[in-house]
# Entry
Amino acid sequence: MKRLKQSIALVLVLILAISLAACGAKPEAKPADNGSNASAGGSSLENKKIALIMQINLGTFSAQYIEGVKEQVEKLGGKVTVFTADGDLAKMSSHLDAAINQKFDGILIDHGTAEALDQGVQKALDKKIPVVAFDADIQKPGITVLEQGDQKMAEVTLDKMSKDIGGKGNIVKIWVAGFAPMERRQVAYKEFMDKNKDIKEIAAFGAASQNTALDTQSQMEAILKKYPNKGDITAVWAAWDEFAKGASRAIQQAGRTEIKVYGIDMSDEDLQMIQDTKSPWVASAAVDPKDIGRIQVRYLYQKLHGDQTPDKIVLDPVFVSRDQLPSSQISTAQLSEHVKGWGNSQQGYTDWLKQAEKQPAAK
# Structure
């Protein structure tokens, strides 16, 4: 009897051991991770608070850029707060500090200088807040900076101008220092002028303000009075669309339609002016402002996801001239039907980001 009891006890111990082993070997069920729900640290990528810190928010280009930023963030279940410095770099630096102190999950920067922003950017990086900048003069390990291919934009518009005026004539340059994209455009302008000795710069001006287009218009009106005769001015090269708007309005109102304007950047308002056969603005080079915003957000979310991103991203510009466009008015949303390469850029668009867009945060 004693042996029987011992045998039964042994069998029960073996059964219990086998059961425990089986339970321990059973894997825990986990939801599939397609990249939309977890970053490298395991936290959700939904409901992120994103700060967009802008040196200046001016005109339809900025408005469409902000639209692109908000569109892409909202597709990924996040929310954007826009901080505008009105051209004041000290205020921009203060906004950056505020975004860090308010514990935003990611920071986007639009323009600005290293002198004003380096300290704040380093503070953000130290607190593990990812930063992606656009057209900002910042070179700091750990952030990604986007630029538009500014020298290329300047080159193609200047080359078009030279071709249209037969390689000779008097031109007006509208440009302003102190902005990284403007400085790059100036490099191309200087190289162009050095090679084209028969093209003479007879006037140069430009300033960034809250009323840039209106101020430019007033200054261009003064120059037209200084050079009142047909042939005194052959063309105007404007390094920013706000400059091109102001110059074009002054020329058109003065009836000096022999003077043509060549600009940089593109918005719905710009496109409307270029399509107007009465407008002197005939061509521009640009990257879709909405695409800029979308691409910038994609690289920020890559950082949030734990992906490695390049230090520098150059966006490919597109040249747009009036002779490419239909007689009926179109918007930049329709521009891709007429100009190859415009809009719908896939830069920075990873497979997991596309998948993440299909699973927005629960409302």
Summary: Residues 2-25 form the longest helix (24 residues). The chain has eleven helices and twelve strands. The chain has a mean pLDDT of 89. The CA atoms of residues 216 and 361 lie 45 Å apart.
